[in-house]
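Researcher: Next entry in the queue.
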Amino acid sequence: MKTTFRQIFRQANFVIGFSIITLILLVITIYPLFNPGSPLQMIGQGTFFKPGTYVNIYDSLDTSKVYTLRLDDAAANRIGKKLLPADRETMRAWLIAFGLPEESVQIEYTDDLLQLWWNSYDENVRPQGMTSAARKAAARVDAKLAGLYNMESLTITQPDETTGEPAQKMTVSETDYVNVSDIANVRVLPLGTDNFGRDTLKELLAATATSLKIGLLAGCIATLVGLALGLFAGYVGGIVDDIIMFFANLFTVIPGFVLLILISYSIGQESRGATTVAVVIGFTSWVWTTRSVRAQVLSLRNRDHVNLSKLSGHSLIRILVTDILPYIASYVVMALILQICSGILSEAQLSMLGLGPKTTEVPTLGLMMFWGMQYTAHLNGAWWAYFPVIVMIALISFSLNLMNTGLDQVFNPQLRS
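Model: Structure for this entry, 417 residues:
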């Protein structure tokens, strides 16, 4: 046994796959300790907040520690954020009409664009080919830039407790800064929020845990059913083999995913929990395991040690468990890994069709993809609502398949040689 484990953990493919899946398990276990609470809690009033650090405005104004910093690029950075694409296009159109080469006007580079604008723009100049409306638009952009460069202090007022009249509370200058550590409420959202205003990272890790549980349960059911039927069909033979293979062939003719869709639809949305979906996936995915195990048992049932066990009067169950199962144990483990991977992918496919588990407590990877698709995250540019889910599914599938490949290279004599 020690030699076998040593060979397994010397196999590069298995070690890489095992490391990836272990890292995923560690993250989904540890992260909730630092960020507790329901993953489906709606923390944002709105949809698809961008990833970043969110600072409470009220607390930042109310802090007593205000620092004065005079940064050379502060104004340029402020303009770069507030200069809209339409404003940039207006500036580009005026500069080209003014006579600058088209290739020299690059609207993506704010500093270069502003330099060209300050050196060239004159409200009294009327470039040829420009309409009056276009010139007025350029004048508005110029006024906007001047306002951004010459910002005055902002005055914060608050109603007086006695008179009710607005009274000055504080003045905020463009050079005033606060330290994030001094602000009471700061929320870091590495993956922003989803269409419901929920923390996407927290939801993703909870969904990964649920999908792994679904895959594990579905994989165990499919492997156990397939193993039991394959053992009996291959060893007993005769009418038992004919009956089992009849149903196996029947399930082979009917596409498994179509059958899975029909069963999930017939269960009804209200009854489709994560466990129910896992059980349905498991009981519709046993066919190829049964056929593979049967083929293995057919090559083992006439071995000398099996015939000796028969002559000794051992029971059928004992022969299957002690004389045949150990010889195909490695194959069963590899089949289990593939069934787990298949279960996760099947749940994702079902959920994408709206037939996945309905849960108000924890999400799944498939449900996150379904929500992102339903609320057109891909059309809104909210990549954080669906792309991390795709990456997580790919990582899990990749790692499990690497582990399976590594085990195959250890236990398959032809590959080992």
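Model: The chain has two domains: 2-43+195-416, 66-177.
Researcher: Noted, moving on.
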